[in-house]
DNA sequence: ATATTAACCGGAGAACTCTCCACTTGATAT
DNA sequence: ATATCAAGTGGAGAGTTCTCCGGTTAATAT
């Protein structure tokens, strides 16, 4: 997971690296100007002055491009989460869950455009159900651990584990762009209110 | 909502009505053979022997077409739900919620293809966040009522109402095609297990 | 019967996503 | 230096969604 540059079998050809920069730059510029949702792969290719084929060689779709654009911020998010878990290791699981959710909502508020870009993807190509996408997959593990701990001492019970997995899944769909945007735009909730409601719904236990 | 034929200001031109039948027939045939997700509007138009423009004149997108194809079944679903609510009017709200969810899951299992077709829709055209689509909108109302009743006597409390709305929203995203399919295909849960888990997650109160 | 006209039809075409593949080029070995 | 060849490039093109609009036609009024 930590192979960024150098030490790889075939580092990357110079022209390829240059194109990658061009793509990233163009995408950033266009996303910034028109919003991630409105920008097409075509536009990005044109702006980067490369052919569509070249763009698709590197990023199978806009999702992957957006993900690459956020990579650093995602790492930061998980650092924050781990720090929070460390700090509150003696707190209740629901306290920790609230913290995680709050951190994620903060992240979403910053990178909403790109996050939505990551999640949107033509129904056909959907390789894996995004529950397994890197970001959500990693988050899922963390959430499951909290839910399991919340179930008291019977953590090795299969039913308890299954329910923890399920709850984590549900919390993640609740945090998906689609659902989150609906709460903001249709229901008119503030980020803080959303965090509050999620807590009431998924881990109402008192601290 | 109950204007099917006759009594409308402009009934519908004869040729238009004929085309509608052709479209419905073609769609049904193709969906049945290749699955709703794989069939394009183009194919439907070709199969129905009409131009693409004619197809789009009637149905803005595949969503609407699928919805029209399910209209009757949706009415039946709500009839079932109302009957269930009537029968169990003295039961606990969580019992009723379980019943509703179970009924809906049964519906989904039958009409999964079409339901997915209704929900999938290109990100751009998304008129309203599907939380307001007829099917989900109506379901939402019913769910809210149950959640409110579940909160005991303080049903006029604004916070209680807000939370009921939120929980209903969350339950509905949990029942969306995307989430449901993931539980079935990725997690390998049976419909019954999904109903069970939804109960544990969203209304764990004992009956 | 005839005229009127709103509804309807169909196909061209703009935009897109994504694939394929003939061609080019940079990195490596000799 | 030169040959080699995988990696990289770009654009044609297949297949979609959806819009526009000139021409057509069925229902209604006269």
TrEMBL record, chains A, B:
One of its GO terms (molecular function) is transcription cis-regulatory region binding. InterPro entries: Homeodomain-like_sf, HTH-type_TetR-like_transc_reg, HTH_TetR. The keyword Transcription applies. Keywords: DNA-binding, Transcription, Transcription regulation. Residues 17-77 form the HTH tetR-type domain. Residues 40-59 bind DNA. This is TetR/AcrR family transcriptional regulator. It comes from Cohnella ginsengisoli.
């Amino acid at each position: 997971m930590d192979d960024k540059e150098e030490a790889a079998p075939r580092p990357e050809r110079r022209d390829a690296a240059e194109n990658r920069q061009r793509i990233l730059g163009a995408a950033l510029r266009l996303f910034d100007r028109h919003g991630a949702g409105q920008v097409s792969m075509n536009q990005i290719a044109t702006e980067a002055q490369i052919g569509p084929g070249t763009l698709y060689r590197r990023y199978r779709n806009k999702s992957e491009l957006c993900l690459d654009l956020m990579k650093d911020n995602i790492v930061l998010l998980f650092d924050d989460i781990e720090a929070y878990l460390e700090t509150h290791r003696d707190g209740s699981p629901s306290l920790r869950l609230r913290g995680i959710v709050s951190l994620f909502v903060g992240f979403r508020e910053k990178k909403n455009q790109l996050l939505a870009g990551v999640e949107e993807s033509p129904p056909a190509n959907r390789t894996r159900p995004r529950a397994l996408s890197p970001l959500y997959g990693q988050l899922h593990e963390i959430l499951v651990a909290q839910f399991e701990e919340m179930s008291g001492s019977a953590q090795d019970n299969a039913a308890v584990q299954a329910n923890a997995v399920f709850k984590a899944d549900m919390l993640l769909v609740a945090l998906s762009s689609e659902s989150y945007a609906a709460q903001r735009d249709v229901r008119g909730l503030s980020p803080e209110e959303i965090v509050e409601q999620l807590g009431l719904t998924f881990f109402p236990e008192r601290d």
